[in-house]
Amino acid sequence: MSGTLALIGDSVFGEESGHHRHLFDPGSTVHLLPTAMAYEDPAGAIAGASDHLAKLDNEVRVLDVMKRADSSDAALAEQVRDARAIYVIGGSPMHLRSVLKDTPLLDALVGAWTHGATVAVAAESCSVLCSHMVDHRGGAFTVGLGLITTLTVIPRFDRWSPDKRSRTISLAPPELVVVGIDEGTALVRAPDGSWGVTGSGEVHVFAEGRRVDLDGLPRTLNPDAGF
Fold it and tell me: How many CB atoms lie under 10 A from the CB of residue 110?
């Protein structure tokens, strides 16, 4: 059975980030993947995440994956494969995609999750997992990693304008569910395939262009891959 998957609407760490509280078991080691922040402020993002998770009684182990060559490092891939908790920081989706695509480290990440690890993914990094990756600059689609094929994610949904939201929803193929996740909010898929929401905001689900409730979310993420 696969592990828990948490799709988080923002990349903020602090007292207001209560949606992180129940993602990882107290005392567990969280492997932090800061790749998406490589050309922004990786040190600041790592420090913020480490401090926040430490207050939740989690030990943090940073995975030094900043460029594509790092994703072929056998030792790093082994760490990911053996991890029980992984947190993928938000940042540049394009950089994250280019670093992880078709690499041993991505295979290790998927393998860890399918063997029961909890994987949390923040902000724009959520959409990178999808076959239809949302370009947050204008709301159109581009090609993602293709791990999730039945839905796509709009993070920071409460910060998007109505026109930008409508553009993405209208461009989605009829079979693709569009999920908007507000800041301060996590959409959590349990190992049994059920979905739940934690945090201060909302999760907005659209199927065939219409707003539906949480029951409209698919139970499978990628039928071709068996999960």
Answer: 21
- How far is 49 from 58, CA to CA, in rounded Å? 11
User: Total structural domains in the chain?
Assistant: 1
**DSSP E strand boundaries for 63-189:** 85-88, 118-122, 132-134, 141-143, 151-155, 177-181, 185-189
Task: Classify 11 as helix, strand or coil.
Answer: coil
State the residue range of the domain holding 193: 5-225
* β-sheet with 59-62: strand ranges across: 59-62, 29-33, 85-88, 118-122, 5-8, 185-189, 195-199
- CATH number of the domain within which 15 lies: 3.40.50.880
Q: What is the pLDDT of residues 108-154, one digit of tens each?
A: 999 999 999 999 999 999 999 999 999 988 999 999 999 999 999 99
